[in-house]
Amino acid sequence: MRSYFDLIRQYGNSDLLPMHMPGHKRKAGFLGGFGRCDVTETVGTEDLHHPGAFLREAMAEAAALRGSDETYFLVNGSTAGILSAVTAAADPGDSLLLARNCHKSALNAVTIHRLNPVWIVPGKISPLRVDGGVDPADVEAALTKDASIKAALIVSPTYEGVVSDVAAIAEIVHRHNIPLIVDAAHGAHFPFSDGFPADPLRCGADIVIESLHKTLPSLTQTAALHLRGSMIPRDRLRFALQAFQSSSPSHLLLASAVECFRIMETDGARQTERFLRSLTELRNAVKGLGECVLLDKDSAAMTAYDTSKIVLGFRGYSGGALHQALRRDFRVEIEMSAPGYIVAMTTLYDSDEDLFRFGSALKKLRRALPFRGERAFPAVTAELPEKVMLPAEALIRKKETVPLKEAEGRIAGETIYLYPPGSPLAAAGERIGPELISVIRRCEERGFTVRGAEKGRLSVLRDERA
Ligand SMILES: Cc1ncc(COP(=O)(O)O)c(C=O)c1O
């Protein structure tokens, strides 16, 4: 069968005069020729929102591969999938059970639909103070206490690779007759090897959302939403998917999503096996380094761990210092640095040489660090702030900005978060406490950008009568 990419390339190279979008007209000079295949809905191409035979079949093949009832390609990232899943699962005004380390798109969905977020706070894994998994007992307790909760959303795996007990959580939420949405944006590779944790879809989740672009060979913004069972109304989900995505989905992105599943179906297992061998060597080399802490499946606060994430800290050094030294001295650019650790992402497209080079850099890193003695930055573990009003209510109130030192006791006017990973330190509508102010101050001093706080000032509600 021809690939969707062949199809758009054929159109791109044809002599048809394009009196239509896109505006760059696929001229050779545009983006060095890269725009050649950026075509629109035209001869042979299809509309994602009303798919023809090709895309319907490609999504059905992806569904068969992934074991879903339906799979939808996404061109607006997992972000669109999360917004759509919440739209389909909860009615305006409902309560949504939400892990506090959720992505900002989940909180945006809460705001758009005037939902009441009921938070579950994952424990921390020492000594790096990484977020642990969601405890099924917390889910049980929350659902028993609050019958107004209409759906649950957890992140598994997390940015750092921590996996929750999705099977146990799915059993609990289904017993309470509500659906489970799993944000598996960082876990699209799980189904392709037993060397990775279990696929959340097979563990019983109703919707699983995966960013193809994060851990599989696919262009940025490509993602997939997998649906199983009958708890989510499909017409609402389809409505939301077209509402939260462009009406002109990029065909390059669609071709990439199609190709991604084809690659994984035909060669994914073999490539992953090779990758896992090299990855194990890399992890063993790093584990042997003194003063280094490498996150692994050795904590009760997680059910499984995705070893393709290299999450590590060196005693006495901030994640920022490690990040800079890797870039400056070894020409290695990692995914992100948190105050106390770094996150590097590896995938099956890393060659053995790439992983060896990264391992060598980590071995030499300690000696390249500029100075000793800096205390590891305390993790951002402020208490869960008091919820004064719904995020949707805070959105429409009048706001002002005040210096950090004057923000204590005020109500956050917008969500305050570190990006990445984009989980809320305080959601809009929550009361700002002294601990949060000190966390923000220390993050800013260390060069981290805190969204929702600018140059030492915070957005707070002007009229605070709730
Ligand atoms: C946990 C989590 N969920 C969802 C997303 C959104 O994914 P995307 O960038 O594909 O929209 C991210 C992005 O970093 C994330 O970290």
Overview of the molecule:
The protein has 466 residues and is α+β, with helices and mostly antiparallel strands. It folds into 3 domains: 4-264, Aspartate Aminotransferase, domain 2, CATH 3.40.640; 269-368, Alpha-Beta Complex (Aspartate Aminotransferase, domain 1); 391-461, Molybdopterin biosynthesis moea protein, domain 2, CATH 3.90.105. 35% of the residues lie in helices and 17% in strands. It contains 13 helices and 21 strands. The chain has helices at 4-13, 53-66, 77-89, 104-112, 136-145, 166-175, 212-215, 234-243, 251-287, 319-330, 352-368, 391-396, 434-445, and strands at 70-74, 95-99, 116-120, 124-125, 130-131, 149-155, 162-163, 180-183, 207-211, 223-227, 292-294, 304-305, 309-314, 336-337, 342-345, 399-403, 416-418, 424-426, 450-451, 453-454, 457-461. The strands form 6 sheets. Strands 1-10-9-8-6-2-3 form a 7-stranded mixed β-sheet, with helices on both faces. A 4-stranded antiparallel β-sheet has the order 11-13-15-14. The mean pLDDT is 91. The site of pyridoxal-5'-phosphate has 13 residues, from helix 3.
